[in-house]
Design brief:
The chain has one domain: TIM Barrel, CATH 3.20.20. Helix 2 links the parallel strand 2 and strand 3. It is globular. By secondary structure, it is of the alpha/beta class. The strands form four sheets. Strands 6-3-2-1-12 form a five-stranded parallel β-sheet. It has a three-stranded parallel β-sheet with strand order 7-8-11. It has eleven helices and twelve strands. Helix 3 runs parallel beside helix 4, helix 3 packs across helix 11 and helix 4 packs parallel to helix 6. The longest helix has 18 residues.
């Protein structure tokens, strides 16, 4: 009898609309723990449900399925899903933030996705094009309040939330997908502004956090996702966060400064990341799977299990009355604010 694998520490992606044979083997590697889906993996709800079922069938054990489905510019599944407005638009009607969080989660859980990397907790400082209207507000208190409502909606549908990008990506103009942004601010400035939404949601039980591929040289020389100072000292000790830490994608240019892929994975894990994302580079993903020691870490396993979707069975159908009502409400709102 083969072993039933726990959720491993690596999150991969797949190439197309169906699962290839060679991808099945990778998914069943002991170090694999999750698959993130992109627009290229999505055609319609039926197809993606089948793809997700085949991913789960390929794994001898538990596996998490994730996607970026914030709304606005970042929404991977569109056809057959409600188009959600960007986070910044809830400023006009805060009560809609909770409904939108519920709807986003309910629609994803209905096709078998465990969680979306949301909400964005960055504060829009008016300089970051990559964050911009993905942020709930330029005001830290308001951003924290709206993000909290959005998470409350997600939780009500049965989905865990992941706040990003710790300790704040909103004050740098550069895009960490393409380069390594540098934020020259001191710790006090970040504490009194950027950390507020993280603080509030952690107190409320936030399940996951993703650090930024940003360097804060006046505080620590490493990008936040590779920094024991940011992850262990500030996040774990000072803010008492006990959920899952997801690295941002190790294929991003913002991660390149620390070394090759196995080295990036090793350093991110050493710094305190529970789950390492390696996307859009299948060769790199294989290298990371092979390079990481296969270890059983009970606390990591517990944290990752909390990220599993827990859909309300009466709401898993895409056509429930509540879903259709909220979907109409959001569509109307989006048209009015277009």
């Amino acid at each position: 009898m083969t072993n039933h694998y726990p959720i491993g520490p690596v999150m991969l992606d797949v190439e197309g609309l169906t699962l290839a044979q060679h991808e099945q083997e990778k998914i069943n590697h002991p170090n694999t723990g999750a698959v993130i889906l992109f627009s290229r993996n999505y055609q319609n709800p039926e197809q993606v449900t089948e793809l997700i079922n085949s991913i789960r069938a390929a794994r001898n054990g538990d596996i998490l399925i994730a996607v970026d489905q914030e709304g606005g510019r970042v929404q991977r599944f569109q056809n057959g899903f409600t188009r959600l407005p960007p986070a910044s638009s809830y400023v006009h009607t805060p009560e809609l933030a909770e409904s939108a969080g519920w709807l986003m989660a309910a629609e994803l859980l209905a096709v078998g996705v465990d969680f979306s990397f949301a909400p964005v907790l960055d504060i829009d400082c008016g300089v970051s094009q990559i964050i911009g209207n993905r942020s709930f507000s330029t005001d830290p208190e308001l951003a924290a309040h709206l993000a909290s409502l959005f998470r409350k909606g997600m939780n009500a549908a049965g989905m865990a939330a992941t706040g990003k990008h710790f300790p704040g990506h909103g004050a740098v103009a550069l895009d960490s997908h393409l380069t390594l942004p540098i934020d020259e601010r001191d710790l006090d400035s970040i504490r009194t502004k950027d950390l507020l939404p993280f603080k509030k949601l952690i107190k409320e039980g936030l399940e996951g956090i993703m650090p930024a591929h940003v360097v804060y040289p006046n505080i620590d020389p490493n990008p936040a996702g590779f920094s024991p100072f940011w992850i262990q000292q500030i996040l774990r000790q000072e803010l008492n966060f006990n959920g899952t830490v997801f690295s941002d994608d190790l294929s991003m240019a913002g991660a390149a400064s620390v070394g090759d892929f196995p080295e990036r994975a090793r350093l991110a894990q050493q710094a305190g990341c529970d789950m390492l994302l390696v996307c859009n580079n299948p060769v790199a993903a294989e290298k990371v799977l092979e390079a990481l020691p296969i270890t059983l870490v009970p606390i990591r396993e517990q944290r990752l299990q909390r990220m599993q979707g827990k859909p309300d069975k009466s709401q898993t159908n895409m056509n429930t009355e509540k879903r259709l009502q909220i979907s109409n409400l959001i569509n109307q709102f989006t048209q009015n604010h277009a």
